[in-house]
Amino acid sequence: MAVALALAGAIAWGTGDYLGGVTTRRHAVVSVMLMAQMAGLVTLLIGTVVVTGSPTVRDSSLGAAGSLFGALGLVLLYYSLAHGKMSIVAPTTAVTSAALPVLWGVTSGEDLTLLAGFGILAGLIAIGLISQSNDKDEDERRLSTAQSIPIALAAGACFGVLIVVFDNLSEEAGLWPLIAGRGVTIPLFFIAALVTKVKPIPETHRVTATGAGLLDSAANSFVLLAVQEGLLTLTAVLSSLYPAMTVALARVVDKERLQPIQIFGLALAAVAIVCIGGG
After folding, report:
1. Number of domains the chain is built from
2. Residue partners of 154: CB distance under 8 A and separation at least 6
């Protein structure tokens, strides 16, 4: 069950990230996040009918803190997806978000196997290979690869923290910690929208922003339940396979091209994820 939930989370995350990135190309990330967070709250409230829970104050506090990291990660990810190459940003973020929970396990007393250590090293090398790009071939409106990689790494770190937070929630909490998180992030984005005076998203593009929010909350729910059902490392790695969806959509819809060395980097990133999980 944990494997199925983690993979469902990966599919939802990957598709939602693509929708969020596409919408952010046309509108301010604050506007996109506000609509996405509100739509996601609806998903979570419906989810509580199926997944009941009795959270403690600690669960709610951790949920709020984790959601702040998750929201910050989405802001960084959507921005880098919108202005950089999706097929580079997504896997870079994924390797980081997979590696951090493994490192957390080591600091908590778990032994880091040789295979997992190799996976982390391979992931770092993969990031370097993926980063190789001929900026002359990139749209002038895009971030260069060298600029988008640090943003993607920061986004991955935020997602890694979120997964670690999931592992520290009680099994009785249900989805309520995620709802507590929305109680913090929605007001923050609302205030940010007022301060920055961004324009609301027009009706023609609300579907993609709403879809991004619905899928993100669904993914968070799947991954949270997967962590409760199985191992943290397994869940972190499987859920980090989400770039497969993002890259596939970017290739099919946006016709993004990759250099051979970048394709090799993507393959090495996949190997890194598998090794981290196997370790």
Report:
1. 1
2. 73, 76
